[in-house]
Amino acid sequence: MKPVYINSIGSVSAQKTFDNKEFLNEIRDYNDTVIHVIDPNYKEYIPPAAARRMARGIKMSTVSSKNALTEAGIENVDAIIVGTGLGCIGDSERFVSDIIKNDEQFLTPTRFIQSSHNTVAGQIALGLGCKGHNFTFVHSAVSFESSLIDAKMMLQNNEADTVLVGGVDELVEHHVTTHRLIGHIKKEPVTSKDLLQSKTEGMVMGEGSHFFVLSNKKSNSCYAQLLAVKTFNTLAKDQVQQKIIALLEKQEMTIKDIDLVILGNNGDVNYDDYYEQLSASLLKNTSQAYYKHLSGEYDTATGFAFWLANKILKTQNIPESVQLNTVEPSKLQTILVYNQYRGENHSLTLIQKC
Amino acid sequence: MSELKQELKEKIIEQLNLEDVSVDEIANDDPLFGEGLGLDSIDALELIVMLDKDYGIRLADPKEGRKIFESIDTMAAYIAANRTN
């Protein structure tokens, strides 16, 4: 099977990640329960006539996918695969609200067009004129990883040479309101730096869009090689360690081969122990990083983790703002990303410097 | 009639998210589609819904829209003659 390389990246997040020349040089600190992306100047990327009908998720994804394509030095791809928890939920909400408000009359087309989950993948394909494989994976906190798995299989089996893979989710009012009602968002604002010490229930909700060009041909811009992606719908706390060991064994590795682990701690007192027990046992002597204090929590937040892992391997630098422990890695060759959300939808992603 | 034209320009800008266009930039006889304001077929559907919702005019034949939506002048004249609310 062919190797899979991550040849370029593009990101729009609650940090200034849309500029690929920078790497968390300035950290935006928050003291809130919900954090939005730092908007790039969309007009630099999208003609006004096209932008006027775009939902936020589409705008973010247009920027991040364009940045990824530009960095890879290509204008089109063989396939576009997007992971999203809720798609363009903003327009879905408005469309349904209009149905209620107008007694099922006067429904306009724009919101309907954008009210499906696969709008982002479709809009990117229309923009590029890409008539290849176009898929959207909707699977809660493993939506992004599901896309990675699909792309990896296509590239390994020579069904495509280049694939644009991404994850996107947008924040909208009603979605936030319902998550507050069910107690999934923290009741009190918490500063970014204190997120893991908050010891309260719930998360700080965020949004973002992260795109990557994956290929079975290594380019000059290559960041890393994608070795493995594995997802699990449910895992007991004591099973996570076994799954990590099993994934590494399949790669003929042990935990000693992992130079850095990026963990998905989100400050939820009820679920962070999935990470904490690993930090104190299997990963005790491994350098650890975290990121949701910078990105917020959302279904495709692991797109930010994947972006971070690639950046770390390329720059050979772990920014101080993401360091979770004081273990210094002797080299930065191999990074493992582990994530779960509320004890479900676990994912393990392994990448290696190319 | 001039009030209706002003109202139509405001509604079109708001409804169709024409963020970079101001009321003053739309002349009453500017073509709305094609070279003028550059509206497209999805906008035409939005305008048909707007006629129904805001002026009580239901177009039996969407092809009629081609003439009605030529410009602000033609829209205003059609609405003034056919509005039910």
UniProtKB/TrEMBL annotation, chain A:
Cellular component annotations (GO), alphabetically ordered: cytosol
Keyword Transmembrane among record annotations: no
Entry's Gene Ontology BP terms: fatty acid biosynthetic process
Beta-ketoacyl synthase-like N-terminal domain segment(s): 46-217
Keywords carried by this UniProt record: Transferase
Keyword Transport appears in the UniProt entry: no
Entries under Pfam families matching the protein: ketoacyl-synt
Single GO molecular function: 3-oxoacyl-[acyl-carrier-protein] synthase activity
PANTHER family: 3-OXOACYL-[ACYL-CARRIER-PROTEIN] SYNTHASE, MITOCHONDRIAL, POLYKETIDE SYNTHASE-RELATED
Name of the protein in its database record: 3-oxoacyl-ACP synthase
Taxonomy of the source species: Bacteria, Pseudomonadati, Bacteroidota, Flavobacteriia, Flavobacteriales
Automatic annotation (TrEMBL), chain B:
Transmembrane segments: none
Matching Pfam families: PP-binding
Keyword Phosphoprotein on entry: yes
SUPFAM superfamilies attached to this UniProt entry: ACP-like
Keywords: Phosphopantetheine, Phosphoprotein
Entry-linked InterPro entries: ACP-like_sf, PP-bd_ACP, Ppantetheine_attach_site
Entry keyword annotation includes Disulfide bond: no
Domain Carrier: 2-83
Annotated protein name in UniProt: Acyl carrier protein
